[in-house]
Amino acid sequence: MLLNYIKIAWKVLLRHPFYTFITLFGISLTLTVLMVLTSFLDHLIGSHYPETKRDRTLYVMQMHLQDSSRTSSSNGPMSFKFLTDYAKSLKTAERVTITTFINSSNAYVGSQKIKLNTKFTDADFWQVTSFEFLEGKPYNEQNIANGDNVAVITDDFKKHYFENSSEPVVGKDVEIENIHYKVIGVVKASPVTRPFTYADVFFPYTAPKSNYQGTGMRGGYVAMILGKDKADLPAIQEEFQSHIDRIPLPIIQDGTKFAVMDVKSVPYLENFLGSILNGNPGMKAIFFGIIFFVLFMLMGLPAINLVNINVSRIMERASEIGIRKAFGAPIRTLMWQFIVENIFITFIGGAIALILTFIVIHLINTSGMIAYADLTINLYVFVISIVVCLLFGLLSGVLPALRMSKLNIAEALKS
């Protein structure tokens, strides 16, 4: 019986190609846009290479300072010394790494300038992150203690800097900002959308121009705190906050006296949203209102369109329903037929959307719009999207079908 319903559904779809096209277009476009956006959000905030441990990592990104009159404030990264004293000393954390954000540098191949993004890190950086080493190894505590001028480079920088990029380059020399470094390792590059780990070249924090010896509280460094387990994060946050609370106030920074200091260790999503989540209730309401509106535009309008099309399609088949009722078809059978038809067309639209999403994501990953992009399809969101479309499809098909199935046979045949 189910196979017969599917055959009927296929014939009905072929009967009105235009309606079929509009219906499939609405379903597939909605799902495609939703999945691409979700894939991009997952790319931004999900646990992906080389930050595969984000679910058990806390981020310390900035210090907020404010004077007692609330007229002067200072926001930004911290000094290496500050993070060493108050983050590295955590007992509940598995490991803590201190690193800079992205710095700009230049290298030259002949007369050609290569613009680089560089990063200064400690040795723990390579344990907290999950970089894939294509050659060599990371620098360690011994390299840092010795003050070695070594560097870890990405495979992309290797291609641009060395004439024969197919040969191993570990042990070779690179000159960056007129300083010579020995290549100690080559890693697979990370996307630019992950600022805690993105760079073309990584140096030990003892390398020249790192400014790690500053004695103030503000500087150019941030920290990532790795927990043994996700459940350990609240305890780590509590310990970190207790360290911060012990700092005597007021403090003097760059000649200004500050009476308020706020430094937080937060998961990546909260760190990513930052000022919105920490802002006033009005800002939160506006933000989530925008999110709701976007979701409504993506899912609501196509769903309403799908309802209208299904109502028109089913109303056109009043005479068919009348004939089937005249031959004794029960209401349950008629209802089941329309349910199967809606499920059938929804899954066709879902299959088209899946193919389109694969194509769009592949184009984004290979276009170079996002350096080293690695967008993937989130199958969980795809399934949820299919269920939502299916729900609207069922409602839009079942309700008119129930109405038509209750029509008097004579009235149905007149339609």
TrEMBL record:
<keyword id="KW-0812">Transmembrane</keyword>
<feature type="transmembrane region" description="Helical">
    <location>
        <begin position="285"/>
        <end position="307"/>
    </location>
</feature>
<feature type="transmembrane region" description="Helical">
    <location>
        <begin position="21"/>
        <end position="41"/>
    </location>
</feature>
<feature type="transmembrane region" description="Helical">
    <location>
        <begin position="342"/>
        <end position="365"/>
    </location>
</feature>
<keyword id="KW-1003">Cell membrane</keyword>
<feature type="domain" description="ABC3 transporter permease C-terminal">
    <location>
        <begin position="293"/>
        <end position="409"/>
    </location>
</feature>
<dbReference type="Pfam" id="PF12704">
    <property type="entry name" value="MacB_PCD"/>
</dbReference>
<feature type="domain" description="MacB-like periplasmic core">
    <location>
        <begin position="20"/>
        <end position="241"/>
    </location>
</feature>
<feature type="transmembrane region" description="Helical">
    <location>
        <begin position="377"/>
        <end position="399"/>
    </location>
</feature>
<dbReference type="InterPro" id="IPR025857">
    <property type="entry name" value="MacB_PCD"/>
</dbReference>
<dbReference type="Pfam" id="PF02687">
    <property type="entry name" value="FtsX"/>
</dbReference>
<dbReference type="InterPro" id="IPR050250">
    <property type="entry name" value="Macrolide_Exporter_MacB"/>
</dbReference>
<dbReference type="GO" id="GO:0022857">
    <property type="term" value="F:transmembrane transporter activity"/>
</dbReference>
<dbReference type="InterPro" id="IPR003838">
    <property type="entry name" value="ABC3_permease_C"/>
</dbReference>
<dbReference type="GO" id="GO:0005886">
    <property type="term" value="C:plasma membrane"/>
</dbReference>
<protein>
    <submittedName>
        <fullName>Putative ABC transport system permease protein</fullName>
    </submittedName>
</protein>
<keyword id="KW-0472">Membrane</keyword>
<keyword id="KW-1133">Transmembrane helix</keyword>
